[in-house]
Amino acid sequence: MPPSGTYRVQVRPEFPLKSAAELADYLADLGVSHLYTAPLLAATPGSEHGYDVVDHSQVNPALGGASGLSDLSAALTGAGLGLVVDIVPNHAGVAVPSANPTWWDVLRRGRASDFSDFYDIDWSRGRLLIPTLADSPDALDDLRVEDGELRYFDKRFPIADGTGEGTAREVHDRQHYELVNWVRGDSELNYRRFFAIVDLAGLRVEDPRVFEATHAEILRWYNEGIASGIRVDHPDGLRDPGEYFDRLRAAAPDAWIVVEKILEPGEEMPDWPVAGTTGYDALAEVCGVFVDPSTEAFFDTLQHHLTGGETSWQDLVHGCKLHIATTQLAAELARMARLVPDVDAAPRALAELAACFPVYRSYLPFGSRHLAKARSEAGRRRPQLVPVLDQLLGRLRNPADELAVRFQQFTGAVMAKGVEDTAFYRWTRFTARNEVGNDPAEFAVTPDNFHDAADERRRTWPDSMTTLSTHDTKRSEDVRARLAVLSEVPGDWTEVVRRWARVDPIPDPSLAHLIWQAAVGAWPLSRERLQAYALKAAREAAAGTTWQHPDERFEAAVRAMVDKIYDDPALHREVADFAASITPPGWSNALGQKVVQLTMPGVPDVYQGTELWDFSLVDPDNRRPVDFGVRRELLGRLDDGWLPPIDDSGAAKLLVTSRALRLRRQRPELFTGYRPVFGEGRCGEHLLGFDRGGAVTIATRMPVGLSRHSGWGDTTVSLDGHSWMEVFTNTSYGGSRLAVADLLRTYPVALLVKEK
């Protein structure tokens, strides 16, 4: 059985399995059916996220180890909850070689290691390249031999048998690996990695032996009933995702399996034996339907005035992806080019195809049309490459060709680094829509399009996860909900942000627009949080500074801009006042988003802490500790009958979250259909509603515009004549036509249950 609802917790050394176990009774009271955890296998020492697994055979000792998982399982079982675990099949952590026994053995024994085929290594180079030394010609002079190991400051590397005599440099030159300047990694690395992270080495999980070794412990949890659900991280990095999911399904036939597959708008998911995605597609739909679609031109004009730029989103994406393909991912590009040594222009053509690829990747033969589209666009942009493109295309269409396999793995990394981690920080027209799984050029989602997508999910992937916030979202759901208000007040926003840009400028006006939106979207937030966000955004945008080569003068200007927001009394007051003016309609949007996501087709996930207001920005900001004591206390008051106001406490969001989750858990038969419900009357466009087959959701759209109409007036909804109970206020309604003003008298959302 799929969950009725999940709750995502970021287990980490500061919040180990014991802390998660202590949440069991609270989560049961909240209304979810399953706890959903970050990865639990042994990770790199000090890891804050767990995606850098170093030992697949054991539960992370830093989280509490096997006994911690056993205690968690007992606590969940006692509370009537299940467990969904996050797993990482694509890569392993290699930042601390001594912590990873298989990687250590590969370094020590090279191709003779039992694990030389465990990782996706190109051994044709000879030695395994490890980019870890300082950017200095004399870095190798800092090597030393100690305790039978090669040491470089605090880094430790093994020494092959019989090679330990002589100077440290002489010993180094005899090893199966070569330590080199860290800047050489992007261009020369000879093992596949996760995106551009050299500390995460790609696994050959397509090998049954590797699959068994990396999944034995996870499947033990499944077979022993400890875990009933599996979330698969980054399937796009795998050599053959379809084959992988067939094998996983065969090993866990009854598990609820969801995949972190990021679908572009309108893209279909392959017919894998899984329940669906982790919900970025639903996130884009839900957030977009609360944006006023009529004001897009205002934001185009504002962006032009602020930046003077004429670059379209499509051209920006192409440029960012091409840059990533030829710089940060140059090693992967070169590895593909070595497969076509007779084609001199292969690197340029492959990079251009990747830059033009419209989705993350294809899964040949599924998705071959995306390759055709990329070929057409690449030919349009680079006519001189047409003969080379056509020469490569036959091989790239062939699922059995090594070039086609690696190109599919390559395009996903190019998309992620080029779009999510670069273009999203440069295209700052309206950042409520700059989110994973969304096309920011799509300013809004119409109700009709929302309903079509929701009904399609019900028919095709009814048990797919839905979400609003994750550990990877660029900003939390409540920040996006508040920023959506800007679409209703474009004139006000234009006035203040143009004035702020004049009084507190930085050399990159597009980045400044991003920071101003982050400030009002997450306000009030500490200087330290906004400084950290602004610095990360600046380096990700890679226009004035970069992670690889920080520009101190540019970064000082960014810090000074943020400081002025806090140190200039007049500016500080203006920012605070503007944020306060959009906060109440932002609350309305946030409650609307939440009830829609929790009741629409799919399995709803709640990210840790977001049952109250959560105004987090991109990681690590969204991994801050959660005060569960406050949440427990507020939930107790709600269960005693308190109807909270919509205020800073966020208790109204907790009411909506808990009541919707409980209803889905207790009455699943009410959530099997889908029929749009429309508002009838002058303000009908401000209502988003649907009937799931006995549970009817009503939410307010564009609350500022509604207030300009002085409220709902004579707007009504037509139901089927039964009597209804509204679950947030415990109010009964009868008749076939209900006045929306009555339904939404207390809250801007309603959840109606057909009374028997």
Report on the structure:
This protein has 756 residues and is an alpha/beta fold. It is 43% helix and 14% strand. It has 27 helices and 26 strands. The strands form 7 sheets. An 8-stranded parallel beta sheet has the order 16-15-14-5-2-1-18-17. A 6-stranded antiparallel beta sheet has the order 19-20-21-26-23-24, with helices on one face. The chain has a 3-stranded antiparallel beta sheet with strand order 6-13-12, with no helix packed on it. A hairpin with a 2-residue loop joins strand 8 and strand 9. It is globular.
List the main descriptive attributes of the protein structure presented here:
single chain; 756 residues; alpha/beta; eight-stranded parallel beta sheet; 27 helices; 26 strands; 14% strand; globular
Quick summary of this structure?
This protein is α/β, with parallel strands linked by helices.
Shape: globular
Quaternary organization: single chain
Rg value: 27 Å
Architecture of the domain at 6-88 and 207-260, CATH level 2?
Answer: Alpha-Beta Barrel
- Largest sheet: spatial strand order: 16-15-14-5-2-1-18-17
Class from helix and strand fractions: alpha/beta
CATH topology of the domain at 6-88 and 207-260: TIM Barrel
CATH homologous superfamily caption of the domain at 6-88 and 207-260: Glycosidases
Secondary structure: helix percent: 40-55%
Spans of 5+ residues with little confidence (pLDDT < 50)? none
What share of residues are in beta strands?
A: 5-15%
CATH class of the domain at 6-88 and 207-260: Alpha Beta
How many helices does DSSP assign?
27
Please state the average pLDDT score. Answer: 97
| C-alpha end-to-end distance | 26 Å
Largest sheet: 8 strands, parallel
Strand segment count: 26
